[in-house]
Write the structure tokens for this entry.
Amino acid sequence: MLKVKGIAVSAGVAVGKVYYIGKEELSIPKKKVSHAEIPGEIYRLEEALIETRKQINQLQKQISSDLGFENAKIFEAHILVLEDRVLIEDIILQIKNRKINVEFAFWQSIQKYVETLRKLDDDYLRERVTDIEDVARRVIRHLLKQEFVNLQEVKEKVIIVAHDITPSEAAVLPKEHILALVTEVGGRTSHTAIISRSLGIPAVVGINVGEVCAKQGETIIVDGYDGIVVVNPTDRSLKEYQQKSDKFVKERKTVPVPKAYKSKTTDGRVLTVSGNIEFPEEIALVCENRAEGIGLYRTEYMFLGRNEFPTEEEQYRAYQKVAKNIKPQSVIIRTMDIGGDKVLPQIQFSKEMTPFLGWRAIRFCLARSDVFKPQLRAILRAAVDGDVKIMFPMISGLEELQAAKKVLEECKKELKAEGKKFKEDISVGTMIEIPSAVLVADHLAAESDFFSIGTNDLIQYTLAVDRVNEKVAYLYEPGHPAVLRLIKQTIDAAHRNKIWAGMCGEMASDPLFVFVLIGLGLDEFSVLPLSVPKVKELIRQVSFEESKKIAEKALLLGTAKEVEKFLKSELKKILKNDYEKILRG
Ligand code: PEP
Ligand code: MG
């Protein structure tokens, strides 16, 4: 038995078999071959090309039946690469002339091919680079006789263990078959963590996966409460963890789903508790948990894990469905936040040194109105069928907000000219997730209908801590006095300008911070659907006056540790015997 400690990012305990997804990096051996070995190398090349082709055909069929024909078209480009005679001739020539092994010759030829394409002044061909690199990896894996991973193939309940799960992989995960996730990369607000929490499955990140997955199919335990992974558990520890799992499942159920939608503090301050979703299927969970609508709909997940951009019509139908199903509650549709760790195969993102500071969210949208406008038009049209609000991510200052609103106005004009129905006076909110936005929040508030504080990013940008880097995860502290002060400034600026301020970052779902956020004057908590009952319960336990005192004191403290210690003691004082029950899980 081996116990490995990582970072707990999604609560719960799971026992199951490992489904290991290896690291993407390939190491390509370079060897000299003798004259007599050359025919053997060429034969291996042909064999690998045939095998790869068979595999791609199979994948194409499977994706076509699971996700539709359009999505399977991505593989056509892969097949073309495998059949490219110029490329194949070049590889054979290299093997013969330089007397090198097939893997190395293949990789070198592919690099040349890719470099040429990158320089071309043709968007379509440049975008094929990803396809070529993808298919080249497959061929190399065949040559090296390495195992392949195909998430669509997972048909039994497993624990996924991976170096990383990219958001595009997360988008096509066979969710019904996943018991838990374990990754090397990530932190509490990485998208793997957020997805795990919204699926209600345990997850641990920051694990050296090499230690965990000695064998595919090995039994492991994932303890998403304490961030522990147990490999090859003894019968005793299996029993112990089963009990732990039962206990927490029972405790979770002891916070009942509230009957009413509204939640009030003991002295009558009414607060809104809404839910965050990534996929329209989560609406059921939002409603079951009595959330007051959707405070954050992360639309970029519709763009991930597929080959083409969703059309305006497809987006319109999806947003309309959400608007209708959540009625009479409202939905805040956030325009797509791609870039950072969420890259689209449809776009050739150059590798950025610091992607979270790069071409992301509103920056990307303002540069690509061909992608931005169809989304805005779809939202405006869907808003006819429900209470739909729009929200822009990653706004760093007034100019960006004004530019985004200008595109929105252009879309309205176009729709009017086309005679299409849309909501003229749609509410427009600004996400406050960059420190510069906090500092100019008065200007932003004057031109917004509401604010939503994105603490996941606000914390990373304020404390200079990459939210997906497990090595600095210990520095990612929501209770940091700098973060509390920025939240206060944001809420104050909103209120001075007579607009409401909500929070849709993970901090709003954390019971430890609910009282201090009430005290700072937050109007709306948009949380994981499963956390709604708990946050509502906490709101009902405290008065606004008490919370204001807690916030005042917390703001005077010097470190995150002191803030957390103080908030824990206040929670204990107010919740008394219910403290353990409400805080865990
Ligand atoms: C945030 O940054 O807090 C947020 C809600 O947005 P995302 O996690 O999607 O970046
Ligand atoms: Mg964000």
In short: The chain has 25 helices and 17 strands.
